């Protein structure tokens, strides 16, 4: 059975969310991974950057959608474009920098030059092509993705049939707004990002952020003890998990829950002092979530940890490896010292030098690589915590489960995963 073509597999059987079991092969099998690149990463709206990273025309960065290398660039009309970073002549990479400002992107190999919207602008010794019947410059631009943004976050998809970004995010926007829209000036990424590699399947990182408060009090206990002199207490009572279309977050309703757990006093003071101001934009209930959301993942691979506003992507680099990118999100109008407090907090908790990050990474790597054993990967994993915990909530949209110590959001993430892996197109997918 291990050798069956991935597209013949029954993904709703591999991921049995009703019963709470998951087949370990989804974390190891290379064919399943290739199908994920096709059916998830080449279809979904993937995060590519924040608008604050593109202030002037020509500003660009390079990243990946799945394993497709892309350039994200602002053109002279002020539009941000996303297109493949691979020359239409022989496929060479046309941009090697991680970020910068450019007039155009010129290929090293034969000198074809592409504009800020990906269009082919000029080629070296173009006159030689005058007799070339199938040479049409207008058709030889770099392949473009659809690009849309939501309150500063820029997403792109290569699937012309994908629903709009608003529809894709759906009611999850209610939860995104807690961080993206609590202040009239909007948000920005602080300059620079940190990149690191982990030998983990991308889904272990995503599921950890979509809803694994459970690990925090155990995995992070000793680091928390060392940094703050106390353990991590996960709020067991008035807390929830919420999910929409595989996106999910979890939260308590004490204003400074997670921010307090991560211990930057200036951040905690800021959140306390501004609750009433947040409430003007978000309402009373969501104003309490600003520092209290524990973690979140936007399907498939954009995650954030609201307590200190760390935003990250899990870029897949094969079935058993990810590149982790980390940014600091802040309110644009926040005082400079507060922005620094966020940056400092993140660097000592969730960055390659942070004490909590190495706790997590080690677990995900071992969860992934244990499946190298053939007998091991024939076994299933238990995802059954909180199977009967769904509730209706009059204010919170999406699927709501009581108590954040729960596998509910993870099951919702894998349900979306299995739906996408099985569906031939978007029209056969339900929102859930
Ligand atoms: Fe880019 Fe030839 S491969 S110009
Ligand atoms: Fe963790």
Record the SSE blueprint.
Elements (H helix, E strand, L loop, with lengths): L10 H4 E2 L4 E3 L6 H12 L4 E5 L8 E7 L2 E7 L5 E5 L14 E3 L3 E2 L6 E2 L5 E3 L23 E5 L2 E5 L7 H5 L3 H8 L6 E3 L4 E5 L3 H10 L4 H4 L1 H8 L10 E6 L2 E6 L4 H6 L2 H9 L1 H8 L1 H4 L5 E6 L3 E4 L4 E7 L5 E10 L4 H14 L5 H15 L10 E3 L7 E2 L7 E4 L5 H15 L10
Antiparallel strand pairs: 1-2, 2-21, 3-12, 4-5, 4-7, 5-6, 8-9, 9-10, 11-12, 13-20, 14-20, 15-16, 15-23, 16-17, 17-18, 18-19, 19-20, 22-23
The chain binds FE2/S2 (inorganic) cluster and fe (iii) ion.
The site of fe (iii) ion (FE) has 6 residues, from helix 6 and helix 13.
CATH class assignment of the largest domain: Alpha Beta
CATH superfamily grouping of the largest domain: Naphthalene 1,2-dioxygenase Alpha Subunit, Chain A, domain 1
In the CATH hierarchy, the architecture of the largest domain is: Alpha-Beta Complex
Q: Ions, cofactors, ligands: which are bound?
A: FE2/S2 (inorganic) cluster, fe (iii) ion
Low-confidence stretches: none
Helix content: 25-40%
What is the total number of structural domains? 2
Q: What proportion of the residues form beta strands (DSSP E)?
A: 15-25%
Large-scale geometry: globular
Largest sheet: 10 strands, antiparallel
Number of helices: 14
The assigned structural class equals alpha+beta
> How many whole angstroms does the radius of gyration measure?
22 Å
CATH topology descriptor of the largest domain: Naphthalene 1,2-dioxygenase Alpha Subunit, Chain A, domain 1
The pLDDT mean sits at: 93
Number of strands: 23
Give the distance, in angstroms, between the N- and C-terminal Cα atoms: 30 Å
């Amino acid at each position: 059975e291990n050798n069956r073509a991935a597209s013949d597999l029954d993904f709703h059987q591999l991921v049995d969310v009703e019963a709470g079991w998951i087949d370990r092969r989804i974390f190891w099998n290379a064919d399943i991974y290739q199908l994920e690149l096709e059916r998830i990463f080449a279809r979904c709206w993937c995060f590519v950057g924040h608008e604050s990273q593109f202030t002037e025309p020509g500003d660009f960065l390079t990243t990946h959608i799945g394993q497709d290398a892309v350039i994200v660039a602002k053109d002279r009309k002020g539009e941000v474009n996303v297109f493949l970073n691979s020359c239409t002549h022989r496929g060479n990479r046309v941009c090697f920098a991680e970020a910068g400002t450019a007039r155009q992107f010129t290929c090293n190999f034969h000198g074809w030059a592409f504009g800020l919207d990906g269009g082919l602008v000029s080629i070296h010794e173009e006159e030689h092509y005058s007799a070339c019947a199938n040479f049409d410059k207008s058709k030889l631009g770099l392949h473009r993705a659809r690009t849309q943004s939501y309150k500063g976050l820029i997403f792109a998809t290569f699937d012309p049939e994908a629903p709009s970004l608003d529809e894709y995010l759906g009611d999850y926007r209610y939860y995104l707004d807690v961080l993206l829209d609590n202040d009239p000036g909007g948000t920005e990424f602080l300059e620079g990002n940190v990149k690191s590699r982990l030998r983990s399947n991308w889904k272990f990182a995503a599921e950890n952020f979509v809803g694994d408060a459970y690990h925090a009090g155990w995995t992070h206990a000793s680091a928390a003890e060392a940094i703050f002199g106390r353990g991590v207490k996960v709020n067991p009572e008035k807390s929830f998990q919420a999910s929409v279309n595989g996106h999910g977050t979890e939260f308590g309703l004490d204003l400074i829950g997670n921010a307090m757990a991560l211990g930057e006093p200036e951040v905690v003071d800021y959140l306390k002092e501004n609750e009433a101001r947040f409430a003007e934009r978000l309402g009373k209930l969501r104003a309490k979530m600003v520092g209290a959301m524990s973690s979140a993942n936007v399907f498939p691979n954009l995650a954030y940890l609201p307590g200190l506003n760390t935003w990250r992507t899990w870029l897949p680099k094969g079935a058993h490896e990810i590149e982790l990118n980390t940014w600091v999100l802040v309110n644009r109008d926040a005082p400079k010292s507060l922005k620094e407090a966020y940056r400092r907090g993140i660097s000592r908790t969730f960055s390659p030098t942070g004490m909590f990050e190495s706790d997590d990474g080690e677990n995900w790597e071992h969860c992934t690589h244990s499946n190298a054993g053939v007998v091991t990967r024939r076994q299933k994993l238990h995802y059954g915590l909180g199977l009967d915990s769904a509730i209706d909530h009059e204010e919170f949209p999406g699927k709501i489960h009581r108590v954040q110590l729960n596998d509910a959001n993870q099951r919702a993430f894998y349900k979306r995963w299995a739906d996408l892996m099985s569906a031939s197109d978007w029209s056969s997918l339900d929102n859930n």
